[in-house]
Design a protein that fits this description.
This protein has about 250 residues and is α/β, with parallel strands linked by helices. The chain is built from seven helices and eleven strands. A hairpin with a 6-residue loop joins strand 10 and strand 11. The longest helix is centred in the middle third of the chain and has 17 residues. The protein is globular and about 40 Å long. The protein starts with 14 loop residues before the first strand and ends with a strand.
Length: about 250
């Protein structure tokens, strides 16, 4: 289902694939993920960076808020980690914003292109299967809020298609974890602006964890100003650092 915010014609975002299998955005002239691989970035920076799977254990529902859905690798990796965890929460809600959704073909290709010498083939096979499930419902994504259900209703994806500043404040969710993702602050400043971070904080409660690949000073200072305890952690090579944070209070 969808709730429309505007009526502009919808077209899937073009993805350019380099010879080495790295997906790039023509719009932002940047790669979609670290050269270490999208699945490695999802697992290390975001899933583990927010304390998962441990933090959802013992809970009835766990909600992840993400600021940029991109190729869907963060969602698929979170879903795969949830599926593999015998102590998982009963309900996983993944709520994400994306102004320029890519095609289902590019999402499936992104999973296959993320294989490296460090890839766990069992995990890869699981994620490939989940990607096919997501691709099967990935249609009609005009601007608005779309809700998809998987795993007999135990996994829910809420995708808000629209500009982050417009749709993020309208989302009805309280986040247990936040994946602060998007193209770099230098080329996509609106995604990392103080107003965007304020909208993120409105969906947080004390104890909400947050993770990001960027440690840009403006982002770190903005999060601190809004009540997050911010830490720099060892990054996924070749990046030296990544960001972890915990919301204290507004």
């Amino acid at each position: 289902m969808s709730k429309f915010f505007s009526s502009y014609p919808f077209m899937y975002e073009s993805v350019v694939w380099s010879e080495d299998g790295i997906p790039h955005s023509l719009r932002f002239k940047d790669r979609y993920h670290s050269c270490a691989g999208g699945l490695a970035q999802a697992a290390t920076v975001f899933v583990a960076g927010c304390g998962l799977p441990g933090n959802w254990r013992g809970k009835t529902q766990f909600t992840v808020l993400e600021t940029g859905f991109g190729l869907g690798l963060n969602f698929l990796s979170t879903w795969a980690a949830w599926e593999a965890d015998s102590q998982r929460c009963d309900q996983l809600h993944f709520c994400s914003v994306e102004a320029y959704p890519v095609s289902s073909t590019d999402m499936v290709r992104a999973v296959c292109a993320s294989v490296s010498s460090e890839t766990d083939m069992a995990v890869l096979g699981r994620i490939q299967g989940l990607a096919q499930q997501l691709a099967s419902v990935w249609q009609g994504l005009s601007p608005g809020i779309h809700v998809f259900h998987f795993a007999q209703g135990h996994v829910r994806l809420t995708l808000a298609v629209g500009e982050v500043g417009q749709v993020l404040p309208t989302l009805d969710c309280q986040a247990d974890a936040v994946f602060l993702d998007g193209f770099s602050p230098s080329i996509n400043p609106d995604m990392w602006s103080l107003s965007t971070l304020q909208a993120v904080a409105l969906h947080c409660r004390p104890g909400t964890t947050l993770a990001s690949y960027t440690v840009a000073k403006s982002v770190c200072e903005g999060l601190k100003q809004l009540g997050f305890l911010v830490s720099k952690c060892k990054g996924l090579p070749p990046k030296r650092d990544r960001l972890e944070a915990v919301f204290q209070s507004s």
